[in-house]
Amino acid sequence: MAPVHPDGPGPADGGAILRLGFDPPHEHVPGFEVIDLATLHERRRRRGRRPDLVHRVDFHTLTLITEGSGEHAVDFVTYPCRPGTLLWVRPGQVQSFVRPGTANGTHLLFTPAFPPHSSSADRLVNEWYGPVCRQLGASPTYAVLSTLLGQLRAEYGRPEQAVSAEILQLLLATVLLQIDRLPHAEGGADPHAGGEVYARFRAELERSYAATRRAADYAHRLGYTVKTLTRACIAATGQPVKHVIDGRVALEAQRLLAHTDEPVATIARRLGFPEPTNFGKFFTRHTAVTPGAFRQVHRTQQ
Known about the structure:
Layout: E1 2-4, E2 19-21, E3 32-36, H1 37-46, E4 55-57, E5 60-67, E6 70-74, E7 77-81, E8 85-89, E9 94-99, E10 104-110, H2 121-125, E11 133-135, H3 140-156, H4 165-180, H5 195-208, H6 215-222, H7 226-237, H8 241-259, H9 264-270, H10 276-287, H11 291-301
């Protein structure tokens, strides 16, 4: 994984948060790699990176823990890792192996363009949201995914000239579709309940959250009414569209406050607030703490 230094400010660059591009040392198949999690940690050590380095990636990572224990943090939530833990970290999310411990397992890295476009899996990798962690334990789903990942590893480990990218794509699509059929947590959000309207809205939100927080702007851009967006958001998240928009902005604010040294006024402008005072009121309303207090708490935890 190589550092990526974007050319200009905006929601894609994440300020000073380190962003890693897809750059395996030996790329057998463009856009895809499968390794042991322990191998990933060793690679990071050789490159002089702290094991708990906070970073984003420009690709998907999918990890099935098969032995040991540890902890992995994604966007301010720390997940315990043990045999049967499944982690899916998506492009742009901020993560850290806060305590790698002894956890090991199969680790897939793949770009959004890698899965076959003719498959429903293509929709899954283009969604910028979804559960990060599933605790499968010794369930039948764990056995199915473990078998599929073993087949992926076997294909990827063939001599380079004999590896089939198509087989890897189809196996990966099967893995993603198996994950997609897992039940949602009771009372949890179900993004699929919002249908195409919610999917299109979330894609536009990811592009534009720093440019506008007005629900009417998103409705106009997508050709829907605000009521239609609100119905889709309530179905998918239980919250109206304005809350979903503000939640995305608040998340990015938390990321930048916790993981960069940018002044609060700079972060405010980056997220579309001309006046830092208005940003402070917005942040406090959504997190119950001021930007300065939030930053201080997370500085002391690092």
